Amino acid sequence: MAETHVPDQAVLRHQFDDLEQQRESINLGMWLFLATEAMMFGGLFFTYALYRGAYPDAFRIGSQHLNVGLGTINTFALLLSSLTMALAVHAAAVAHTRRLILFLAATALLGGVFLGTKAVEWTHDYQVGLIPGLRWTYYDTHPGEAGRLALVHLAPYHVQMFFVVFFSMTGLHALHMIVGLGLLGVFIWSASRGRFAGGNDQPVEIVGLYWHFVDIIWVFLFPLLYLIAGFRPFAAGGH
Amino acid sequence: MAEPHTSPTSGAHGDIHLHPEAVPVFVYLRVFAALMGLLGVTVLAAAVDLGPWNLPIALSIGVMKAALIFAYFMHLRFSTRLVQVTSVLAFLWLGILFVLTASDYLTRD
Asked: For the whole prediction, is pTM greater than 0.80?
């Protein structure tokens, strides 16, 4: 009925005794959800550990096909986005709506940079034929490379396992980033309608928890996937 | 322990309630500087061939970055004990997943 959105001022819901309990319960609920997310990614991390332990050389060779420079840029972008997200939560806490929207938008922009870089990487992988199941033609078009694998008693399918793990993990991570961007968009919209003018920062903090968690996942993905063969940002590896 | 804070009783645009526990901005900036430093160390350590030590070093640096993000960006340092314990439990559950699954694979012929 009102034209502007009624500011969200931490209304006490009936099932809670007081605002402190409500705030803690909401926070606890989110952390429990993050625990389930950790279990989901954990399964993939274990798969990585298992196959890297089984085929260490194949994983090193597979990693050399990745663009370490772009991976580093992505890591920087996500860490910076965590800073802007934390600053957004702070802006909500002190009820500065304009700054809140600015920092949410900056976070979303950096997330977009991350996804754009990923798209560039994956497009390249598709073109050279390194996507298992979709387009795995690299070793057919590079018989010399296949020969080099045979010299160390490896076959293309050993390297393929690295890419199965790579695309599973970065794919699931990218899906989480897309969801995060959606959440940021919704919050930018509701912030612009005055939702956080009353200083209730908890909804923003909850989205922040999600975003930081997705960043932490990438913090581990980067060295485990991109740096197996060392840091070589300008190497020809990816072809 | 979180301090109780009441919501304003006046109308939609009444008293602005400033958060009593808002973490100061300079804390976030310092944490970010530390994260950038750790990213630099990650890259430098990966550029040097340290044999079998590259992996545990890379993971340790990752854990340090994660700890900073958990503690300060995710406010774990300023959360209630219940929430802090829950976050530790999450790692324990993950550990159970790893240990039990690994015990299967490691005892196969």
From this structure: yes
Pair of tokens at residue B83? 């929430």
B78 touches chain A (CB under 8 A): no
Q: Is A234 helix (H, G, I), strand (E, B) or coil?
A: coil
d(CA A126, CA A119): 10
Backbone angles phi, psi at A225, to 5 degrees: -95, -40
Contacts of A27 in chain B (CB under 8 A): 79-80, 83
Q: Over the stretch B58-87, which tens digit does the pLDDT of each residue have?
A: 999 999 999 999 999 999 999 999 999 999
Separation CA A169–CA A112 (nearest Å): 18
What was the ipTM of the complex prediction? 0.88
Neighbours of A30 (CB within 10 A): 20
Scan residues 64-93 of A and list those with Cβ closer than 8 Å to B: 72, 75-76, 79-80, 82-83, 85-87, 90, 93
Answer for the pair A105, A188: CB distance below 8 angstroms, yes or no.
Answer: yes
How far is A215 from chain B, CA to nearest CA, in Å? 9
